[in-house]
Amino acid sequence: RNIKKYFPITGGVLRRTIGHVKAVDDVSFTLNEGETLGLVGESGCGKSTLGRVIMRIYEPTEGTLTINGQEISHLKGEALRKLRHQFQMVFQDPYSSLNPRMSVGSLIAEPLLVNRRGSRAQIQEQVESLLAIVGLSPEARVRYPHEFSGGQRQRIAIARALALRPKLIVADEAVSALDVSIQAQILNLLADLRKEFGLSYVFISHNLAVVKHVSDRVAVMYLGRLVELAPKSKLYTQPLHPYTQALLSAAPEPKRHVARERIVLMGDVPSPAKPPSGCAFHTRCPQVMDVCRSLRPELKEHTPGQYVACHIYS
Ligand code: SF4
Ligand code: MG
């Protein structure tokens, strides 16, 4: 609820704080158990920062973060460490998150050993079962990350993430570095795991087609704020926010029946250190009105389940 994450900007010889980057600026949403929420937006919109706040890698500057009724916004130390089993993150480049000097078996066993999840023999067994779950052979145990392709490395990272049986996985551009055919395999794997383990996902991507493939609901972010949140079926067929409309008009989609006119946005995304007044999108919005420059639109439910932050609808 009302999550903010501001990073100080320092300047001068004394390195005083001279401003803040408002990476996440007042975001509220609920993630249901077993649900996949897609989080889309251009690079720099704050989606990765929001993912890290959800994971409690970052502490929110303001706002409350609750999991199963427990407030975790400011948990620290042992209390946070205990809770960490419940969520895991999968990144774009598994190579940078997998220690190249560790064998695949050790990489997957590590979280189990650290958390004392069984005897050596039991852990060994769990590693083999995790490898099978992600579609790798038991022999992968004795090999090293560099011996695998990008898609296989992502499977290793997923096996490691699954080791402690998390409830929530935040996937940040998890398939963006992979070839399209491999992307589909990993997305299908994630979908299978979701059913098998009752996982929930926050699926972060700049790619609307990928998000469409995996998500139940989709949240669109612009300059640190959610501008639209809707069930997938609504967001892709009747986007309400002018920014969502522009993003969708630019996304290539071969099976589209109704041709959508391409909406070209003028200018660049403004700096999150100096977001525009009122609606942060007003500097680029094709439908801007006077009120947009001074009054910030709140995210409100427009049709059942579809939320939008735009004065056109109020
Ligand atoms: Fe455009 Fe105004 Fe809506 Fe913002 S509030 S998206 S500027 S119409
Ligand atoms: Mg990012």
Automatic annotation (TrEMBL):
Superkingdom, according to UniProt?
Bacteria
The family database entries (CDD domains) matched by this protein are listed as: ABC_NikE_OppD_transporters
Q: Which InterPro entries match?
A: AAA+_ATPase, ABC_transp_ATP-bind, ABC_transporter-like_ATP-bd, ABC_transporter-like_CS, Oligopep_ABC_C, P-loop_NTPase
Keyword Thylakoid in annotation: no
Which of UniProt's keywords are assigned here? Answer: ATP-binding, Nucleotide-binding, Transport
Q: Which GO terms describe its biological process?
A: peptide transport; transmembrane transport
Q: Which residues form the ABC transporter domain?
A: 1-248
Membership in a protein family: Belongs to the ABC transporter superfamily.
**Entry protein name:** ABC transporter domain-containing protein
